[in-house]
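Worked example

This section walks through a single chain of length 365. The input is the sequence exactly as stored; nothing has been trimmed or padded.
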Amino acid sequence: MHTKHPRVLHIFDQSVYMYRSQHGFFIVEHNGVFSESRNRLFINTLYAMQETLQEHKAKALLISFAQLKGVVAANELRAFVTLLERVGQKLGVVLGVIDYDSATYTQLRRLTAETKIKLFKNLNAARLFLDPKAYKNGMEVLVFDDDEVNARKLAGELGKFGYSVVIAKNMEHFQQMIDQHQYTMIVTQSTLNRQSEGASAAAPKPLALSKQLILNLPVFVDTAVETLVSFTGLEAQKSSHTIKRFDLNNDAEMLYALMRFKGDLEGVFVLIFPIELAQTAIEAMLGEKIAPKDLDTLKDGVGELCNIITGGSKTLLSNQSIKVTFELPRTYTSLKSALGDIGANNGVWIDMQLASKPFYMFITR
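Given that input, the structure is written out below as tokens.
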């Protein structure tokens, strides 16, 4: 039966399974039953959608597990994932699973590791990674350089990424702009990548980042904000940024997640969360309580946030034909251990907030 819906392109009811289309994503509601007969019916439903998916140029086909109750038997879920993988190869469309609980996610992550099936917490998360341009509205960047020609060139390059760019005329104007408006990212080029003439030996080392990486710093900030809002439902924002070494002076216990990246851009991305805030964020993301002393779960959670942020950044960069490969995240509870992998180079230290509480990002070479 084909019916119209004011906010959904169309809904099909095949007595057991329903699917809908929203923002170009087709979502099939699984009813939580994994018997052999139900699996066959479900797979047939997916195959029957092929013409519709092609006609509407679907961005992805997403299987919603919102109706699942309790833990699915491992053998049943394994058989289902195997069938899904075959469907994905046949339909030629991105295939993903959404709306799962933490226990099911643990199983899915293991079972889909060697497949092309993608996992997303919800539809918003899928849109973030598969349709990133939908999240570009309202992203503003303030640019200042004492060299006006360079400032305009920098603004032009940032504009290619789809950002709304404002150029400060001089230092006084730059300070006024900061005081009057909250920008997504502030980029100053006047002292980056070079050391002023006559500088003393005691002066800080110049920033060890390429110009191209500096130009793309807003990508990391945007993705961090969008990821945290989408996955946790909490308000996230950037507060400020400075150029310095990694030297966090804070009495709070911290969790560190680090990912190295290489390719057209090279460097190290570090996510730093106070343990208390990490617990808040991961509980919001998973929808369940976590014991404060369950450091393994908290480390995994912060590592996964780091993975998601860099994954989203990689997608945005790829849209600009910038190829970057990220290593698997490393997590630490010790600042000394983290510093051993981060090194002593200057970098961009970014102060962030989640639910009005501070956390940090650091990007260096």
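What to look for: The chain has twelve helices and 17 strands.
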